[in-house]
Amino acid sequence: DISGTFTLNNGVEMPYLGLGVYQSKNGQEVANAVYWALKMGYRHIDTAAIYRNEDGVGQGIKISNVPREDVFVVSKVWNSDQGYDSTLRAFEKSLERLQMDYLDLYLVHWPVAEKYKDTWRALEELYRQKNVRAIGVSNFLRHQLEDLMESAKIIPMVNQMEFHPHLVQQDLIDFCQKHQIQYEAWSPLMQGNIFDLREFHHLANTYNKSIAQIVLRYNLQKGIVTIPKSANRERIISNADVFDFELSKLDVDYLDSMDRNHRFGPDPENFEWSY
Ligand code: NAD
């Protein structure tokens, strides 16, 4: 069910379905989205400093009356804040905006080449100080993970990547699994582009579920944490209605076979860092 979790390599339980809030407006819009999600059973919210809506996320959690310790709250250090000291400061500011005294998961948002190792040392320190229950990365390809792990004292607990049927990156999933790095999907709905594709309509009809539900269920059956974004109450509710059916192995393989290595977001290999 919606409160189900995957267990991270340090034993922390991470709810496998969360609410993404990228492009949800700070203030009422994001606070409402978080409130509705928590009211209907979500226990995991994915934000980032660069989304500029951490204040609203904090408000939404507060007004839901769900106890802080029952919600898995994730944020990320932005590229321009990378480096040891600046990451520690950025973390403090995120906590202030969220009005919290700890995070459940803090991620390195992108692998800024000359800096991500110093950034990681700061996350290790935050983890040791128990300011955060788990630490991880986002948008790290295999060579970047290998490079980081060479000097890391703590293996990342999570790698949050763009993932959907047109960008599977199975090699990276396998690598992460081998190292007990939990794989997590961003843009699981292809930023909304999934709804235009004919092959998904067919699957939706077969299972009598929505296209979003088919694709999110596919994430979970592959053992991947997923965080669909919506600020619309009905969609927030229906995106979590994925626990009353199961895709056949054949259909999971079919969705995998749609892979065309196509990104809707930036390429971690050559993302422009400077904004
Ligand atoms: P998504 O794939 O979740 O798609 C969101 C879009 O689909 C929105 O336009 C929404 O209105 C629409 N939508 C959602 N549910 C729908 C439904 N049931 N029916 C019809 N339309 C629906 O895209 P995303 O927001 O890019 O990704 C999800 C989350 O992942 C983000 O909110 C953010 O938290 C995270 N993310 C992380 C990174 C990163 O670099 N780590 C990058 C992008 C996003």
UniProtKB/TrEMBL annotation:
| UniProt cross-references to PROSITE patterns, sorted A to Z | ALDOKETO_REDUCTASE_1 (PS00798), ALDOKETO_REDUCTASE_2 (PS00062), ALDOKETO_REDUCTASE_3 (PS00063)
The keyword Membrane is annotated on this UniProt entry = no
Q: Which UniProt keywords apply?
A: NADP, Oxidoreductase
* Superkingdom as given in the UniProt entry: Bacteria
Residues in NADP-dependent oxidoreductase domain copies: 18-259
Q: InterPro entries of this UniProt entry?
A: AKR, AKR5G, Aldo/ket_reductase_CS, NAD(P)_OxRdtase_dom_sf, NADP_OxRdtase_dom
Q: Signal sequence: where?
A: none
> Which family does the similarity line name?
Belongs to the aldo/keto reductase family.
> Which protein is depicted?
Diketogulonate reductase-like aldo/keto reductase
